[in-house]
Amino acid sequence: MTRISVIMAAYNRGKDICPSIDAVLSQSDKDLELIIVNDGSTDDTEKFILEYKDPRVIYIKKSNGGQASARNLGIKTSKGKYVCYCDHDDIFHKDHVKLLADFLDKYPLADVVYSNARFMSFGKFLNITDFSNPKKSPEKDLYFVPMPSTMMHRKEALEKTGMWDENRIIRFGGEDWDLWLRFKDKLEIVHLNETLTDYCMHGRNMNTGKVRVKAMIITRLYVFNKRFSCRAKEAGIWKAALKSLPEYIRVFG
What we know:
With 253 residues, the chain is an alpha/beta fold. The chain has two domains: 2-209, Alpha-Beta Complex (Spore Coat Polysaccharide Biosynthesis Protein SpsA, Chain A); 210-253. The chain has eight helices and nine strands. Helix 6 runs parallel beside helix 7 (213-235) and helix 7 (213-235) packs antiparallel against helix 8 (237-252). The longest helix has 23 residues, at 213-235. The model has no long low-confidence stretch (mean pLDDT 86).
């Protein structure tokens, strides 16, 4: 069995996808596969992907459906024991997959491990985001969502939580929030205090730029209602309401 599956969702990055691919293929732990899912790119992204002849690269092309659908397809194709995500504008540090996978090897009760990230803006260093110290505790703060590129999870963990939600309503960032909430509910999550990836801001990131307030509200409402409905089925409507009220206030207050 392959040890690590790296899922890369790609859309209209052209040659700029190459540093992300190079970083994965240059990892110190070579026991990995890189599954690149071209999510309906309309530019020359495919051309640059196909230039890679490394047998560890698995290329899949599909019609556009959003990051969640690309990640799900990559996961279904994967053969690794562990799964991690490197989007087309993330840069893994050399020991990224090794340190995360070694941690899961060492601690079999951990389902998910995540690290810190270095934020870069047009090639210049901005700051290191220490995800171990959110404004509120991870268990209580619905806004605390480490980036997908910082985490690695056991593939089998998704049997407990379900896959990425592909609903178009939350295609612009909400899918990360939705999955992380399910992780919190069902899995054992551990933070590794290492900076192992670069998040590169370049003006075309999905979660940067002007975001309509209406879209933000719809995303939050969808995720909250989904979470509330699941709790109501498990604990009953009144218990779910009491437990969800503080979360509702944080989300919409």
